[in-house]
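> @MW can you paste both from yesterday?
MW: sure, first one:
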Amino acid sequence: MSRSAHPAGPRHADVLPEGHYSAPPADLNVLDPKVWSRTVARDERGVATVGGIGVDALAEEFGTPAYFLDETDFRARCRAWAEAFGKDADVFYAGKAFLSRAIVRWLKEEGLNLDVCSGGELTTALSAGMPAERIAFHGNNKSEEEIRTAVEVGVGRIVLDSFQEIVRVAHVAQSLGKRQRVQIRVTVGVEAHTHEFIATAHEDQKFGIALAGGQAAEAVRRALKLDGLELIGIHSHIGSQIFDMAGFEVSARRVVRLLAEVRDEHGVELPEIDLGGGLGIAYTSDDDPREPHEIAKALNEIVARECEAAGLATPRISVEPGRAIVGPTAFTLYRVGTIKPLEGLRTYVSVDGGMSDNIRTALYDAEYSVSLVSRTSEAEPMLARVVGKHCESGDIVVRDAFLPSDVAPGDLIAVPATGAYCRSMASNYNHALRPPVVAVRDGEARVIVRRETEEDLLRLDVG
């Protein structure tokens, strides 16, 4: 196959169209450790490897597209978060980022707790042996059936998201003769510097009970009066993919102020606060995420300072990293199908997946990196847009990136940092089959979520 059979799109030296990209890296063959998991490297052939296995061998065995998850990296990140916060705090992995029974077992073994937000996630957690008392149950509209299951199995906490839910959970708990531990989720009015759809602490959105107007204080009053509830604390979550700690400082200050008001009105010091998750990861080399120990130090100092000023004992802190743990641990491997240069604009590189396995670019305008991984290349960089095979012009995987100008059909390319919100938000659009998740560790690879089949699609179609 000729690797120069197609006319090239614009090179980096040309005048480039406006877009979401930086200057090309000095060497396209370098796999930036900031965006790739820790066991990813290139072998002597120039082929990318993970856990010591070449992507060519992985593609041969498991096919493409596929998500490859670096188990060594995942476990190391779990340990880093647990060690950073220590025994006087709780780390809940946010299961919505990506959840499977293997993930649950790893979390249990590494000492992390688990946050779920649906009956399906709760069932997955319990089926893999996560103790119910180490589970927190979120969600803005939990069904009575979901609440009843959570109370029956004894989840460690339910996060109350509305006035209706306060009554609903209390009623279910009383009917079962139980007293359920709960937190109240408050919206603190912080404008997080992130995409509109993943900012969750401003008042005009669906989550939580607003501090403004005294609504959160009223929620506390109601919860304290109900025999079926044990109010253990306040929960706040300001958004996702956040790098700036300033928002957490404002949030913590406002939550502590509410704790002081609760003490003054009710004579009760609530023992816990949950500051949520949402810490950002590096999707591109321009991103600069904080390490867990930096985050822990900053949050502990913020809470301790605010509590001291309010004359409160420092409550136990909880955090909920999801993306920050699983996001960097996986990449999606694709095979190139067609190359379409557009003179003066860019080259469209079509792969065998797309928005069915990564909706985030279309949904959030998310930015990703991409690399040629089946070989190295000394060709000039070209501005490329990696697109999928679906019937949508918005079916974009990587909006603007640089690939070698000799990239050709049959090449393998990979998008790093796809561990979070890619498989969990995957769809069957155009009846695409959702890819497998393959865990790789120490020279061994195994499927933890199998690839869907056409039989799976037809099994649900009752005709």
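MW: second:
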Amino acid sequence: MAIPHALPAQAIDVHPFGPRLADEKSVALFKSDDLEVIRMVLPAGKRLPSHKVAGGLVLHCLEGRLQVDVDSQQHALRAGQLLHLPGNVAHAVSALEDSSALLTLVVRK
């Protein structure tokens, strides 16, 4: 079964989940020919291992605290902060506390 995505010009709620955060899951919000946006939910202690994506990305922390490891540097993100990375840069993401974030990926074919 295909996951429903938002339609063009359809409003999407990305407010923090607050007390519902522990019950939420990551979900793809939409995908177009050149962008994909995912609402990521990471419980405290969860880590996405080091990986690369072909296109650039923007990670916007909506709630909680995340750590992004790039090369040998650690970058902390609090709610309301974002960072961007060019394509093909190895990175890992860890949740320092229960967190949700918007991940925007530039799609490269």
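> thanks! The beta strands are 27-31, 35-42, 47-51, 57-63, 65-70, 73-78, 82-85, 91-95, 99-106.
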